[in-house]
Structure formats: structure tokens, C-alpha cells
Amino acid sequence: MPCKLWLALSVWLLLPTSEAGRQMPKLSDKKLCADSDCSHPILIARALQDYYPGDCRFIPIRQGQLIYVYAMLKDRGNLFWAGSVQDSYYGQQEARIGHFPSSVVEETHPLMPASTEVKTTKWDFYCN
């Protein structure tokens, strides 16, 4: 019995204590996308400055990087967009979609109109 308790305690202590794998608060209840699945980029933007995220819902951005924007949050979250960073060398950085403040980028290439309103889900703000 003491051996099982020690083993359980050891495993619990070794578990990561990060935000990964948990639900984070929603930034908004709605978003604007190019399609109902938010699978097509709306525009390409260039980062005007570095952005260091406060938690796992957001992506880090370096000045000059290109970001493919897939969604623009609405209502209380209208200052945030969702997108994926394109590094200077394709494949250098794992593709990851996350949120970032729209104020740290400039629109460079409009691709499709953001005319489809979509409800956000818990998965839009899930940290993995």
C-alpha cells in the first residue's frame, strides 16, 4: 500500500503545471470569417512590432512576420484577430493558429471578405 501511494504521488508531482489542455475564458461569442468553417484566410497582415502573448490562447509574433488572418472576433473581443504566423522560411515554425491584437499588425493583402458571422466555441479558446 505505501508503495502505491508513493508511486501515485510521484506521478502527480511530475505532471506539467502549464495551461496546456485546459479551457480558457472566451474572448468573444462571435467572429467574422470568410466561410462558415473559418478555413479560408481573410487577409495577410505584417507585424508592426513584437507581441509576447499573455497566455496560451495567443500566438507570439515578431516584427516583420506575415500572419494569415482567419477570423476577426466581434463584440467584446473585437480588438483581437485569429491567425497563423508564416515564418521567413517555410516549415521553420510549426503552424499554430492563435489570437493576437489587431493593433500590432497592418493589413497588406486582402484575400476574401469577412462576411460570415460564426459563433465561437470552447475550442476557439482551448489551450493544447
UniProtKB/TrEMBL annotation:
InterPro entries on file: MIA, SH3-like_dom_sf, SH3_domain
Keyword set, alphabetical order: SH3 domain, Signal
SMART domains in the cross-refs: SH3
Domain SH3 as annotated: residue spans: 40-110
Signal peptide: 1-20
Pfam family, one: SH3_2
One annotated GO biological process: extracellular matrix organization
PROSITE patterns: SH3 (PS50002)
Record protein name field: Melanoma-derived growth regulatory protein
